[in-house]
Amino acid sequence: MNVPAFLRRQRGSAVVEMAIVAPVAFLLLIGVIEYSILFYTTLAMQYAVREGARYAITGRTDKDPATSNQQRYLAVIQAIKSNSMGMYDSVNPVISVNGTSYASSSAYSATMFGNAGDIVVLRLDCTWKLATPIVAAFFPNGEYKFTVAATMQNEAF
């Protein structure tokens, strides 16, 4: 069978076009996925800090993993961790309560959440390390930094 000349010249053109378009399409797809993960992480951490603040205002300590000498601040951190959908350790949060930053667990104090009737402002400063170089180019040091917070009043306890 004799193939017309114009068809012979177009053989393989689809492969060449796909080779040109595919990297751009995949980069866009991966970028959309990474932005989706950023928004999910932000929402998950906002939910976690809200639930942590709700737990903090009760004055309870039962969520502290220690069986004896349970601490309120460890119980609140555990409440945040358990409600963060597994994102807590990924975002390396710095906890602030009423404007005082607690960068390490050694800085936590028994009175950091105040007494009955006090206003508690619980804030987490989070950092998410981006994986996609194209998306990371739009953020300083390839990190997405965000803050989530909740404000509530302590109950009578």
From TrEMBL:
Annotated Pfam families: TadE (PF07811)
UniProt keyword Membrane, yes or no: yes
Domain TadE-like: 12-54
Transmembrane regions listed in the UniProt entry: 20-40
Record key words, sorted: Membrane, Transmembrane, Transmembrane helix
Superkingdom of origin: Bacteria
Identification of the protein by name: TadE-like protein
Species of origin: Duganella sacchari
Native organism taxonomy: Bacteria, Pseudomonadati, Pseudomonadota, Betaproteobacteria, Burkholderiales
